[in-house]
DNA sequence: ACATGTGAAGCGCTTCACAGCG
DNA sequence: CGCTGTGAAGCGCTTCACATGT
């Protein structure tokens, strides 16, 4: 709290210490744990939450302190308030529109994935370069051609693009998304993509198995 | 090389400095980049590989040095040799059998995913608790009941389990996999699972979008 | 008495910068 | 001369330990 009080009471809402990226990645996990709590539970301690999230309790407290935490000493944290604070910090109070490019098995599965909807992520467009897929309905949405991407992103206010194409197409698709004004990309293609001014997160399913393979190999 | 020479020449094959987990996670990326190189290219510099992998060249050199690197000063690394060394370190010279539990949209997509096969990961069993799915064929494999899991893992030599169930079932499934002798789990369920003696990696699709949401929110 | 909030120490990864070698 | 291999410095995250507050 030193950081704030030094600047006076009115600066609270204006100044924030930057949240470490390691913390940002854990906030969704805390959120998940809090929501999985029995309905009657309205208080949690950092220790309790830590066990559920599989981390150290000091880490929980430090992470939550970045939210301008309002835990009560000797008691714990108010669950409802904490849920709201995390959602607020993650920008989850607003719906976000998502487009998916590459409608193969994985793209279809993601288009149908309930978890996105539950968190306020709306899939508003499906795109594929293969003319044979055009017009196919996936979860009620038609597959559209790549030429329709830029207009669709603009008119439907999409902010996030998901790439589920084969690796060779990934960079080209990323460029197209960036050109259309997309600011965040979730890349499932097994390729590294480079795009200026766009936040990219990589999820490579085969990479995950290779890491597991390493530990299997190592242990033997 | 100091670490080895101190122990004498014969210890080379016996003693290895431990590979940092951060490095382990990058090796598959390097592998990907190397394999995407034009067929004629037989040499790469750390700088070239670094650009392709989106990292710093010193990091590449340090990472590769854990493999007991044999780059040539003033020249670079032999691509073919490097590919082999990485595959060897990751234990990819051996096929690994995988079972998938939870045959919803995502489970089906993964069962069909070509990227696993290409890296030597063979899907040898599909399991689901829903009796209505039993016997469904996915990529040529029948969906089997949970009761068949333990036997199947043992008889088909499965080493890796993939969980694609809803969150509430995840822990129970993890326990079942651990009980069946599985040593590595890739968990796609939006839940934290705890299992002794089992390496668990978590891939939460909704978490990824929430992290992107944070940066969208932050930037605004 | 008890759990939070946080300086400070610890630890590991990243990056620099250059010696070493082909 | 060019590029690797690596000490050493830098940086950020984790963990400890305890002062603080109720």
Brief overview:
Chain A is an alpha/beta fold.
Taking all Cα atoms into account, the compactness measure Rg of chain A is 21 Å
Task: Specify the helix fraction band of chain A.
Answer: 40-55%
Spatial order of the strands forming the largest sheet of chain A: 5-6-4-3-7-8-9
Count of DSSP-assigned helices of chain A: 10
What structural class do helix, strand and pairing data of chain A support?
A: alpha/beta
Low-confidence residue ranges of chain A? 1-14
Distance between the termini of chain A: 49 Å
Largest sheet, strands/sense/barrel of chain A: 7 strands, mixed
Task: Set down the secondary structure blueprint.
The structure is a homodimer of 220-residue chains.
Chain A: H1 2-5, H2 21-35, E1 43-44, H3 46-53, H4 57-65, E2 77-78, H5 79-89, E3 96-101, H6 105-112, H7 114-118, E4 121-127, E5 137-138, E6 141-144, H8 149-156, E7 158-163, H9 167-179, E8 184-187, E9 199-202, H10 205-219
Parallel strand pairs in A: 3-4, 3-7, 4-6, 7-8, 8-9
Antiparallel strand pairs in A: 1-2, 5-6
Helix pairs in contact in A: 2-5, 3-4
Chain A binds a DNA duplex (22 and 22 nucleotides) through residues 1-2, 20-23, 45-47, 56-59, 61-62, 64-65, 69, 71-77.
Descriptive notes:
The structure is a homodimer of 220-residue chains. By secondary structure, chain A is α/β, with parallel strands linked by helices. Chain A has helices at residues 2-5, 21-35, 46-53, 57-65, 79-89, 105-112, 114-118, 149-156, 167-179, 205-219, and strands at residues 43-44, 77-78, 96-101, 121-127, 137-138, 141-144, 158-163, 184-187, 199-202. In chain A, the strands form two sheets. Chain A has a seven-stranded mixed β-sheet with strand order 5-6-4-3-7-8-9. A two-stranded antiparallel sheet of chain A has the order 1-2. In chain A, α2 (21-35) packs across α5 (79-89) and α3 crosses α4 (57-65). The model of chain A is unreliable at 1-14 (pLDDT under 50). At the A-B interface, α2, α6, α7, β8 and α10 of A face α2, α6, α7, β8 and α10 of B. Chain A binds a DNA duplex (22 and 22 nucleotides) through α2 and α4.
């Amino acid at each position: 709290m030193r950081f704030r009080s030094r600047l006076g009471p009115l600066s609270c809402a204006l100044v924030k210490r930057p949240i470490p990226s390691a913390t940002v990645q854990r906030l969704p996990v805390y959120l998940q744990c809090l929501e999985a709590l029995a309905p009657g539970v309205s208080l949690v301690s950092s220790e309790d939450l830590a066990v559920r999230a599989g981390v150290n309790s000091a880490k929980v407290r430090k992470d939550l302190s970045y939210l301008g935490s309002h835990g009560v000493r000797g008691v714990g944290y108010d669950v409802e308030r904490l849920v709201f604070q995390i959602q607020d910090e993650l920008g989850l109070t607003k719906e976000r529109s998502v487009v998916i490019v590459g409608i193969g098995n994985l793209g279809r599965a993601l288009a149908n994935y309930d978890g996105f909807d539950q968190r306020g992520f709306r899939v508003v467009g499906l795109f594929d370069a293969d003319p044979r897929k055009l017009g196919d309905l996936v979860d009620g949405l038609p597959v559209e051609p790549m030429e329709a991407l830029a207009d669709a992103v603009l008119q439907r206010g999409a902010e996030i693009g998901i790439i589920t194409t084969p690796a060779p197409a990934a960079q080209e698709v990323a460029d197209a998304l960036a050109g259309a004004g997309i600011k965040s990309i979730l890349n499932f293609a097994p390729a590294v993509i480079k795009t200026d001014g766009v936040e990219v997160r990589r999820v490579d399913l085969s990479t995950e198995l290779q890491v597991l393979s390493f530990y299997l190999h190592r242990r033997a």
